[in-house]
Design goal:
The structure holds two protein chains of two kinds.
Chain A (H helix, E strand, L loop, with lengths): L11 H22 L1 H24 L5 H23 L2 H8 L1 H7 L4 H31 L8 H29 L2 H16 L11 H7 L3 H13 L11 H33 L8
Chain B lengths: L4 E13 L11 E13 L3 E5 L6 H8 L7 E6 L2 E2 L4 H7 E5 L11 H11 L4 H15 L14 H14 L4 E5 L7 H17 L4 E6 L2 H7 L2 E6 L2 E6 L1 H6 L5 E7 L18 E9 L2 E8 L4 H11 L4 E7 L3 H9 L7 H11 L1
Parallel strand pairs in B: 3-8, 3-9, 6-7, 7-8
Antiparallel strand pairs in B: 1-2, 1-4, 4-5, 9-10, 11-13, 11-14, 12-13
Classes of the chains: A mainly alpha, B alpha/beta.
The complex binds adenosine-5'-triphosphate and magnesium ion (MG).
Chain lengths: 280, 346
């Protein structure tokens, strides 16, 4: 039988920490159990990347573009993850009956969202590394890294901004319900184009590049390319330092936005009975 | 504010705004709860009994801080459900029947561990409690089964464990035995009773459709219908209300076409409630009579309608009878079928 004494329960920051990892866990363990995910999230971006490489080679594009595409392809995995596994996750969790239990538990909703993000980043990072490794080997890409610490910093800040945006989307998508699918579909392809997954964003011209910069991957990718393929003149929509600052601002805005939206969502949900309704 | 009260509601009301396509003249809102007053003491196993749509789940969701009341006040351990949300969440848990929570890829143990962490349990404590509780509900051997591979009953037992893993003060159980077979339902009820016995200072609020379940489990219960509380007492006292009345089950020959209103059985003086079910070739009548001697009037009425008595049984009042007496209809799971039967026979 159960021991009679009361259970000690963490609160505050420790509870926040527990909650993040508890929610990250199914993401991390899940992908080792569901092999089809590995296929969709690795092989598909890999094929997309490879086809661009072949197109570039066929039309005689500069050899440097191969490297750009490979890096872009690896980062695509993160974008897909944010779109399909972050933004729509609360919606699924509501559908499955988990959201209610998340809300009644003392673990903060924001920690739950962060857990989803952490799990997503870790899992997707393995995919990105696979894509990067396989393509670099296949297409014989050479890298000239200007500053590794700066590169890591840019990557981290890009992830913060990107998943911050994903967390904010999660609330919006939940409020929008089924319509959200269309938004996701709508966003997927144009973003590939505009944010320069497959070629330097600078080539898109100033205005499109500026608009596309709202998506954190755009500047993150441009900055990372500048650092990895140092000295290529087609790169550098803005300087790495400026891009870093903008990315920092974006992450603060998105994460702050996510916190606010989530609080709002819970408030409206409790008032209008949206947390408890079942669609099925 | 009484500190010995685990749950207290004061004129609690909830109105849902109805969304979605509406035709002209359709109601824009629905009153799900209307002036509900409840006082549940610490250590009580309290039941909410009512038909579909009565408002049982709404009460639970308000008390569990998932839904705001439209009017009135709700308190859990003296804390206000509107304001003291975080503090309440630390002390409560909720399990609903037919729940599909968790992630199918996780094992039973992993799924429970995840929820335990949301409540701030450290690793060692979480694992210890998972093992102990799985043992108690008899599914320790399923610890490493993926939850997508569990049957409904096993899954519900797992959900149950989740509800108790965090050592809550107040547990909300919304139709916990929904969809379970007799054995599984008995196990679940047994577990609740045992837990209450081992933790005399804890409180359970449970909703149910099943009269027998309410009768067996609950220290006290409230009968609720259409958002209103009709009665609140111990099962014994509720049944005691019907002590003066006489309750009969009759089996009679076919009653023929539905007569006019004042020729129905309900119109016989002294008949308080009558529920009538047509069953292959005969009719079953369940009557609550003001006194026993009203029976002769009923029999005379049946003779006049050309029906003959097949069997007759007098019995002790059950909660079902109390419910019929208060609500005016039976609490059948399948209400639509029943309404038809009444209509045809009336
Ligand atoms: N989110 C919602 N939006 C609109 N109406 C709702 C909502 N939830 C419940 N209702 C309505 O409120 C009333 C009470 O519902 P509730 O779920 O509390 O009843 P219940 O007693 O739990 O019924 P059941 O036995 O079927 O579970 C019903 O008429 C129901 O249709
Ligand atoms: Mg209900």
């Amino acid at each position: 039988m159960l021991p009679a004494e009361r259970v000690q329960k963490a609160t505050g920051l420790r509870l926040f920490w527990y909650t993040i990892w508890a929610r990250a866990y199914p993401r991390i363990i899940g992908s080792t159990r569901e092999k089809s995910w590995l296929f969709f999230e690795t092989v598909l971006p890999l094929m997309g990347t490879a086809s661009y490489v072949f197109v570039y080679r066929a039309i005689g594009a500069p050899e440097a573009y191969t490297g750009f595409v490979v890096l872009g392809g690896a980062m695509t995995a993160f974008w897909l993850n944010v779109l399909w596994a972050m933004a729509s996750q609360l919606y699924w969790d509501k559908d499955g009956g988990n959201l209610e239990l998340y809300v009644v538990s003392p673990g903060p909703l924001m920690a739950i969202l962060l857990g989803m993000a952490v799990g997503g980043i870790l899992m997707t990072a393995t995919r990105a590394v696979i894509i990067l490794g396989v393509c670099s080997f296949l297409f014989n890409v050479s890298y000239q890294i200007a500053s590794l610490p700066l590169l890591v910093l840019i990557f981290v800040v890009t992830m913060a901004a990107l998943y911050g945006m994903g967390m904010m989307f999660a609330s919006i998508f939940l409020a929008a319900g089924r319509e959200a699918w269309h938004i996701s579909n709508l966003l997927q392809e144009p973003i590939y184009l505009a944010s320069g997954f497959y070629f330097p964003v600078k080539a898109m011209g100033f205005w499109i590049a500026t608009f596309a910069s709202v998506i954190p991957l755009t500047l993150g990718l441009d900055a990372m390319r500048q650092l990895i393929f140092a000295g290529d003149p087609t790169l550098g929509f803005l300087s790495v330092e400026v891009e870093l600052i903008i990315l920092l601002v974006l992450s603060v805005v998105f994460i702050y936005g996510a916190i606010k939206m989530l609080a709002k969502l819970e408030e409206i949900g409790r008032r209008e009975g949206r947390l408890i309704e079942r669609r099925r | 504010m009484d500190t010995n009260l685990a749950i207290e509601t004061n004129d609690l009301g909830r109105v849902y705004r109805l969304r979605g396509p509406k035709r002209k003249g359709d109601a824009k809102q629905l009153v799900a709860l209307d002036g509900v007053n409840l006082e549940i003491r610490r250590g009580e196993l309290f039941g909410l009994l009512g038909p579909n749509g009565a408002g049982k789940t709404t009460v639970i969701k308000i008390l569990a801080t998932l839904l705001l009341p439209s009017s009135g006040v709700g308190r859990v351990e003296g804390l206000d459900v509107t304001r003291d949300v975080q503090e309440i969440r630390r002390r409560i848990s909720m399990v609903s029947g037919g729940e599909t929570s968790g992630y199918g890829l996780l094992t039973v143990e992993e799924n429970l561990w995840m929820f335990a962490r949301f409540y701030g349990l450290d690793n060692v404590t979480a694992r210890k409690r998972i093992d102990a509780l799985l043992e108690v509900v008899g599914i320790a051997d399923r610890k490493r089964t993926k939850i997508s591979d569990l049957s409904t009953g096993l899954r519900q037992k797992m959900n149950f464990v989740r509800g108790f893993i965090s050592d809550p003060n107040v547990v909300f159980l919304d139709e916990p035995t929904l969809g379970l077979d007799v054995t599984a339902a008995r196990d679940v009820r047994g577990f609740v009773k045992q837990w209450m016995h081992d933790h005399p200072d804890r409180t359970v609020l449970l909703t149910t459709h099943y009269m027998a379940e309410a009768d067996e489990l609950c220290d006290r219960l409230a009968i609720i219908d259409r958002g209103k509380l009709l009665a609140c007492d111990t099962p014994e006292n509720l049944k005691h209300r019907l002590q003066r009345e006489a309750i009969f089950n009759l089996k009679v020959g076919p009653l023929g076409p539905k007569p006019s209103r004042d020729a129905m059985i309900e119109a016989v003086p002294g008949v308080r409630q009558a529920t009538i079910v047509e069953q292959n070739g005969h009719t079953e009548l369940n009557l609550i009579l003001a006194q026993e001697d009203v029976l002769s009037n009923v029999l005379a009425h049946l003779t006049r309608r050309g029906s003959s008595l097949i069997s007759l049984e007098k019995r002790e009042p059950t909660l079902e009878d109390v419910f019929v007496d208060l609500v005016g209809r039976r609490l059948d799971v399948d209400t639509s079928h029943h309404a038809e039967g009444e209509h045809a026979a009336g």
